[in-house]
Write a structure and sequence with these properties.
alpha/beta; Rossmann fold; Tyrosyl-Transfer RNA Synthetase; Structural Genomics Hypothetical 15.5 Kd Protein In mrcA-pckA Intergenic Region, Chain A; 3 domains; six-stranded mixed β-sheet; five-stranded mixed β-sheet
Length: 424
């Protein structure tokens, strides 16, 4: 079996790494690795998918992933990549978020006995005695070196407070603790974490006289320069309660052509040799690949049933895309389908409101197809609002019972955002 470090490099996961040959040696036999996740919300978002998928690859290659939820460091706040201080959450809020993240991450990794571990650093950080910590750990850190770290340099311009300044020590202590208690000598994370991870490597070397390793992931943006997982409507969450599987599926369908091959490597398990052929595709063939991309990622995150519902709903709304049988053959996507609209976002509206008719701009804002009534008016003026495939031509247009088809009304904002109205 290929060394997992080579697999990660080949699929685009590696931005920086400590000595490659030594790291490959560490990964030549079953080993432990860890990634920390910030419990600032009760769900992870698309930006967390790269580290999650990296851990899945590690487990598939016989290694032991450790998911570290930052119940302790979350009380401090990581300054990395931030131009201002993070909002400090209460211990109670963080505890609720930690429980939600544990449940969410269990969908991706096998936490059975002797397999992946899910730990909370509050278990060892909350009980630390400050004076003892400074004497035992703090003395190994150079303030000059800390201030040279990129995560601190950015914040020096806007103001770095003392509680944030301690974050590097706490993350380094996490790495040291896991090396000591779980024989874990590899930490992975976003490229903005390089300084924090290297601080942990130095602490392990000084305290335990052991070698430790780092792998950082590229901080991804789309080909257009947008941050991954950010849309006009906000973040794209991994929780079905925050972002429906249909909207999640549509996010990937709308990928820039230039991103398709890269995303297939990072977010699916389709073999590299099949994905390489995608780089030369264009037009309809590339659109077929986007369907496969969206289906595969939705299947990984929400399960096959939800992916099937999203696929069928998209086909019923936007039309059938019959996939050529030889295109990315390792994909689990079905090549034929029936009609289903169960995954399309739906709002129940009272029949008496439809009898009177609802102004289109008002309804589009109410069901969040537009951010506001003003935005809905502009959409109508620009010819981008549709009811049952018919363009709405006037701002005072009213939507009512005459538009009902099979008990529902289909509304579109542009070609990609859809919503169904049902009578209740």
């Amino acid at each position: 079996m290929a060394n997992v470090f080579e697999i990660l490099k080949e699929r685009g996961f590696v931005a920086q790494a400590t000595d490659g040959e030594d790291l490959k040696g560490y990964l030549s036999k079953p080993a432990a690795c860890y990634i920390g996740f910030d419990p600032s919300a009760d769900s992870l978002h698309v930006g967390s998918l790269v580290p999650i998928m990296a851990l899945v690859h590690m487990q598939r290659h016989g290694h032991r992933p450790i998911v570290l939820v930052g119940g302790g460091t979350g009380l401090v706040g990581d300054p990395s990549g931030k131009t201002e201080m993070r909002q400090l959450l209460t211990a109670e809020r963080i505890e609720l978020n930690v429980a939600a993240l544990k449940k969410q991450l269990s969908r991706f990794l096998d936490f059975g006995e002797g397999k992946a571990l899910l730990l909370n650093n509050a278990d060892w950080l909350a009980g630390l005695r400050y004076i003892e910590f400074l004497r035992d750990i703090g003395r190994h850190f150079s303030v000059n070196r800390m201030l040279a770290a990129e995560s601190y340099k950015i914040r020096m311009e806007t103001g770095l407070n003392f509680i944030e300044f301690n974050y590097m020590l706490l993350q380094a202590y996490d790495f040291y603790h896991l090396a000591q208690t779980h024989d874990c000598c590899l930490q992975m994370g976003g490229d903005d974490q390089w300084g924090n991870i290297v601080a942990g490597i130095d602490l392990i070397r000084k305290k335990l006289q052991r070698s430790a390793y780092a792998v950082t992931f590229p901080l991804l943006t789309t080909a257009s320069g947008a941050k991954m997982g950010k849309t006009a409507a906000g973040a794209v969450w991994l929780s079905a309660d925050k972002t429906s599987p249909f909207d999640f599926y549509q996010y990937w369908i709308n990928s820039d052509d230039r991103d398709v091959a890269r995303f297939l490597k990072l977010y699916t398990f389709i073999p590299i040799d099949e994905i390489e052929a995608v780089s030369a595709m264009e037009g309809q063939d590339l659109n077929f690949c986007k369907t496969i991309l969206a289906f595969e990622i939705t299947r990984v995150v929400h399960g096959r049933e939800a992916a099937m519902s999203a696929l069928e709903a998209a086909r019923s709304v936007f039309g059938e895309r019959r996939l050529p049988p030889g295109l990315l053959p390792s994909s689990d996507i079905p090549r034929l389908s029936g009609e289903s609209t169960g995954a399309v976002p739906t709002t129940i509206v009272r029949i008496d409101r439809l009898e009177d008719g609802i102004p289109a701009f008002e309804l589009f804002a109410e069901i969040a197809l537009c951010d506001s009534r003003g935005a809905a008016r502009r959409l109508i003026q620009q010819g981008g609002a549709y009811v049952n495939e018919d363009r709405i031509g006037a701002i005072d247009y009213r939507i009512g019972t005459a538009h009902l088809k099979d008990g529902g009304i289909l509304l579109k904002a542009g070609k990609k955002k859809v919503h169904r109205i049902k009578v209740g």
